[in-house]
Amino acid sequence: MPKYAKRVETLPPYVFSQFQARKKELEQNGFDIIDLGIGAPDLPTPSFIIQKMIQEANKPENHRYSPYQGCSDFKEAVAEFYEVHYNVQLDPATEILALIGSKEGIANFMSAVIDTNDTVLVPNPGYPVYQSAIHLAGGTPAYLPLDSTQNFKPNFQSVSQTDLAQSKLMLLNYPNNPTAGTVELNTLMEAVTIAKEHEIIIAHDAAYQLVTFGDYKAPSIMQVHGAKEHAVEFGSLSKSFNMTGWRIGYVVGNPELIKALATLKSNIDTGQFLPIQKAAAEALRSDLSTVKDNNNLYEKRLNLAMDGLEKLGVRANRPKGTFFLWAEVPKGFTSMEFANLLLEKAGVIVTPGSAFGSLGKDYFRLSLSVSEEQLTEALNRMGGIM
Ligand SMILES: Cc1ncc(COP(=O)(O)O)c(C=O)c1O
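That is the input. Now the predicted structure with pyridoxal-5'-phosphate docked in place:
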């Protein structure tokens, strides 16, 4: 057997793949499985983005290697997006970097800023990629608990002075996966104040920034005065424009940190295909009407799911953003037992909260990225076994 690196061997198991493997097995045996574990939109990429991509793909000059930091059209579009939607000014040359999806950027950022044994404050519960990236970079996680009584705001007060003093980097993520928690700008201001006081770098993962409901508008950490001295913000077109497979995102903020990440990346990858960057620029410059249409659709599904869960006696906060519902596991089950029960007895996949950290243990995550019919059917099936 070939031996591979310990850091890979010791990566935490990816719970999602276990459920996917069991799903395949059950489907092969003729069972119809409804997957509410998916973290990606089920909707197509808007056609104006596809058209732009085709147009650009037909130009031979776009078939070459793209500039390491992203093409100027894309970076300028990101700057315009921040100006128009957040009244934030960014220099495309030094404060913006194109990414091959924000996951790539977050994982490489970890290696670019932390040294072996450096401490990283990471939300609990949180997106599992943070943990894996810290592990691969040789860092040590310390936990930033999200407060279930405060719509999953970070509970900065509960972090020990030692952890604050030792942490080099703090990860934040709003609108939040998996809890669907959202914050107002004052929470991000508080984070920047703490970062300044303790000399901590902030990486704000804003992948769901545009997936919001009603009047709620998710703030950008770049709106906080002085944020650029301490923070970067990761953005993604995956969720807002249904472009998960296209692999395009960006990071903005502190120029030194952007430069460090760009240097690391220039040794690993060579930028996203130019037509994809140019199509993404078109998306960011749009009036966001396709984003609003998506959000309206998710909101209808959300209403349906909230009603259904209430009838089942399952409690969940009504989210203002993301396409997730974070629901409480019925008494008497662990989150893993409950998720297994739903899969085996009802043919419904949900994600056990424990997959996102110790503070997820009493919850399960349900995704709204299936049709209303499937959602109704899934809730009916759940009712049948509860
Ligand atoms: C919180 C969060 N951040 C980042 C990502 C990565 O998105 P992408 O790499 O497609 O931009 C995801 C995807 O599921 C996510 O849930």
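The chain has a mean pLDDT of 96.
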